[in-house]
Specification:
The structure holds two protein chains of two kinds. Chain A contains eight helices and no strands. By secondary structure, chain A is an all-alpha fold. The longest helix of chain A has 19 residues. Chain B contains three helices and eight strands, in the order βαβββαβαβββ. In chain B, β2 and β3 form a beta hairpin. The two termini of chain B are 30 Å apart. The chains are: A mainly alpha, B alpha/beta. At the A-B interface, α1 and α8 of A face α2, β6 and β7 of B.
Chain lengths: 136, 138
C-alpha cells in the first residue's frame, strides 16, 4: 500500500506549522519548500491540494486572526497592529483584512467584543474563513 | 454518576514508533502492552498521575476497520486533522520545552505567556497535536 499521500501530508503540515510559528516574517516559499522537501512550485500546488488554499492565503488568515485579536484586546493603533502581525504596508493590510472579513479593521474594532480563549484554539477557530468571492 | 476519565485514545500509525515517542521522548510510562490476538492493547500514562488514567495508542486497521479507511485516517492525521489531541501539564514549561527540543521532538510553537499560564505545543510522529501547559499560579 502506498504511503505517499500520508508522507506528503505530514511534510506539508510541518511547513504549515512553520508558517503559523513565524507568521510575522515575510512568506518564504523556498524555505517552506525545503521543510517539505519539494520544489517551490510543487510546494504551492501541493499545499493548495492538501489544505484547500494557497500558502499565501493561509498566512494572510493567520495574520488577520492575530490582527483581530489585537484590535479587540489592545489599544494599539491600526498601523501598529498592521506592522505587529507582519504586513509591511497599511494599504495591503486594510485590503487583505477587508477581502477576508468584508469590513475594515476600524469597523471590526468598533463592533468586536473581548473574548479570551486559549491561544491554540484562537488560532484554529477564530481564524476568519475567506469570503466565497475572496479569491484564492 | 461518572467519576473520572480513565481511558482516552489516540490513533497511531505504528505502535513501536509511538512507544519510542510517548515513552522514549515525552517520558510517559507503559501501563499495558498486551497482545490480545486481534489487537495490541497498548496504553501509556504520565508517571505519578492517577494510575487509572491512561492513553490508548490504537493502530487503525483490520479487523476493526478496512484497510482503505485506515489509510484515509492516517492521511487525515498526517495533515493535522485530528485537532487538539492531548493536553499535558508541567511544573516548568520552559524547562520541559528545552528538554523535549533536545530530544528532537517536533515542536510547533515555543513557550508563550497566556492568561491561563505558559504553554507550548508539538506533534507526535504521525501528526497528532499535543500541548503542554504550566497553569498560572503553579
Amino acid at each position: 500500500m502506498s504511503r505517499a499521500v500520508e508522507e506528503s501530508n505530514r511534510r506539508m503540515l510541518r511547513a504549515r506549522d512553520a508558517m503559523d510559528r513565524a507568521y510575522t516574517e515575510p512568506l518564504d516559499i523556498p524555505a517552506l519548500a525545503r521543510i517539505a522537501h519539494v520544489s517551490p512550485a510543487h510546494f504551492i500546488r501541493t499545499f493548495r491540494a492538501t489544505f484547500g488554499e494557497t500558502p499565501h492565503r493561509y498566512l494572510q488568515r493567520r495574520r488577520v486572526e492575530r490582527a483581530m485579536f489585537l484590535l479587540r484586546e489592545t489599544d494599539q493603533s491600526v498601523t501598529e497592529v498592521c506592522m505587529t502581525v507582519g504586513f509591511s504596508s497599511l494599504g495591503t493590510f486594510s485590503r487583505t483584512f477587508h477581502a477576508i472579513l468584508g469590513e475594515s479593521p476600524t469597523a471590526y474594532r468598533k463592533r468586536a467584543v473581548s473574548s479570551v480563549v486559549p491561544n491554540c484554539f484562537g488560532m484554529a477557530y477564530m481564524r476568519p474563513a475567506s469570503l466565497p468571492d475572496g479569491g484564492p | 454518576m461518572l467519576n473520572k476519565i480513565r481511558i482516552t485514545h489516540v490513533f497511531v500509525a505504528d505502535q513501536d514508533e509511538a512507544l519510542d515517542f510517548y515513552v522514549g521522548k515525552l517520558g510517559l510510562e507503559v501501563a499495558d502492552d498486551i497482545d490480545l490476538g486481534f489487537m495490541r492493547w497498548l496504553t501509556v500514562r504520565v508517571p505519578g498521575d492517577d494510575p487509572d488514567r491512561v492513553i490508548l495508542l490504537e493502530k487503525p486497521g483490520p479487523p476493526a476497520m478496512d484497510a482503505q479507511t485506515a489509510e484515509q485516517l492516517r492521511e487525515l492525521i498526517a495533515k493535522g486533522a485530528s485537532g487538539f489531541t492531548l493536553g499535558f501539564s508541567t511544573d516548568d514549561a520552559r524547562k520541559t520545552y528545552d528538554e523535549l527540543k533536545a530530544k528532537g521532538v517536533e515542536l510547533t510553537d515555543g513557550p508563550t505567556e497566556q492568561p491561563y499560564g505558559i504553554d507550548f505545543g508539538g506533534r507526535d510522529p504521525f501528526g497528532n497535536h499535543f500541548r503542554v501547559s504550566q497553569p498560572a499560579g503553579s
